[in-house]
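User: Here's a structure from my thesis project, written as structure tokens. My advisor, Dr. K., wants to see whether a designed sequence matches the one we expressed. Can you design one independently, without my sequence as a hint?
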């Protein structure tokens, strides 16, 4: 794919509880990335409330887009294409971004670029690592997804394995809730774990003989909850840092094992991390050490591009722009959507 001139993409992301808009130059250089998080609004419920999320997106979407354009010092007329997350995610939340993107595209007669949320997370790596090019293996671990993906080319993805139950981030959030650490739980467990002993409690690790790249975290979650309940009932002293460190190690061991196995099988020279859990300090460190021993480079996006943001959506949309893969105005929000789906009928 050859670049002929500078390309400015406006990205829009509203799939969950962040309202975000961003302006990205040539798919790699972020001119602005405005993220308005609703985390505080949802914290008292211990998770995202879809109806509250949609309403807040409606209030925020236009001011957030305006701020992104202003900060980038770009006018809508200078934008070459509008990239938007159309799935997977909360349907009411997705619809706000999709409607705004369609309105701008039709008003200005500019290309509309549809972006799969997870492909956006993967593209976050292009922002932080300007020299990164496919092929590579990407471990995507977020609140809703845990996938090992072989990225053959910018728009060619093969899912090698995924979780059979909870996503890694979801497990972090549930454990944090049981331990009273608040929402979102990942960063809190990560911080606590630094004070604890990862070998203190041996929590289970699940592997599948018939699917070496698949994950399962629900048994681990139950084991942690049982451990906590048992200690509370018997009056045993609970070390929250030890539980966090031991739980985190169990998650990281499995994520890293399976990802390195996939990279070795496919002869990949690079492994990338993506998604909210990619900001986990132990995941980064463990992967870096173990990949290095095998002669594999490991990369991860800057923390701000790990959790939901529109810069990663603009970065991914850039490659659809280059190939002329434009969406029609019949684009809809699709809550369940497979990675790598390029047609309208393969969700
Ligand atoms: O990618 P993301 O912003 O949203 C989804 O698409 O799901 O990921 C959010 C998830 C939450 O589950 C959060 O607890 C987790 O990422 N997370 C972390 C860390 N920071 C965020 N999990 C573990 N360690 C962290 N440092
Ligand atoms: Zn996400």
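Assistant: Designed independently from the structure alone:
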């Amino acid at each position: 794919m050859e670049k002929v001139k500078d390309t400015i993409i406006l990205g829009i992301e509203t799939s969950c509880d962040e309202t975000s808009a961003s302006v990205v130059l040539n798919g790699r250089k972020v001119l602005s990335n405005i993220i308005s998080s609703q985390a505080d609004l949802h914290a008292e419920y211990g998770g995202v409330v879809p109806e509250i999320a949609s309403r807040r997106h409606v209030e925020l979407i236009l001011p957030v887009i305006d701020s992104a354009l202003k900060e980038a010092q770009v006018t809508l007329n200078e934008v070459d294409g509008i990239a938007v997350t159309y799935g997977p995610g909360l349907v009411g939340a997705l619809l706000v971004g999709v409607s705004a993107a369609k309105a701008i595209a039709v008003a200005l007669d500019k290309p509309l670029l549809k972006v799969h949320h997870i492909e956006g997370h993967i593209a976050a790596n292009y922002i932080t690592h300007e020299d990164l090019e496919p092929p590579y293996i990407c471990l995507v671990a977020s609140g809703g997804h845990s996938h090992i993906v072989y990225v053959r080319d910018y728009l060619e993805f093969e899912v090698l394995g995924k979780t059979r139950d909870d996503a890694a981030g979801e497990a972090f959030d549930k454990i944090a809730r049981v331990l009273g650490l608040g929402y979102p739980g990942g960063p809190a467990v990560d911080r606590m774990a630094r004070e604890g002993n990862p070998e203190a409690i041996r929590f289970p690790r699940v592997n599948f003989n018939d699917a070496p790249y698949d994950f399962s975290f629900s048994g681990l979650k139950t084991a942690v909850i049982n451990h906590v309940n048992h200690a509370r009932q018997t009056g045993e002293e609970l070390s929250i840092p030890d539980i966090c460190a031991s739980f985190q190690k169990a998650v990281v061991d499995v994520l890293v094992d399976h990802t390195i196995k996939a990279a070795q099988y496919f002869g990949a020279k690079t492994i990338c991390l993506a998604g909210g859990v990619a900001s986990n300090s132990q995941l980064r460190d463990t992967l870096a050490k173990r990949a290095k021993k095998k002669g594999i480079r490991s990369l991860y996006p800057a923390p701000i591009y790990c959790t939901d943001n529109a810069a990663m959506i603009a970065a991914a949309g850039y490659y659809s722009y280059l190939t002329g893969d434009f969406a029609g105005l019949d684009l809809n929000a699709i809550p369940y959507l497979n990675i790598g789906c390029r047609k309208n009928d393969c969700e």
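When you compare it with your expressed construct, this may help: The chain has a mean pLDDT of 94.
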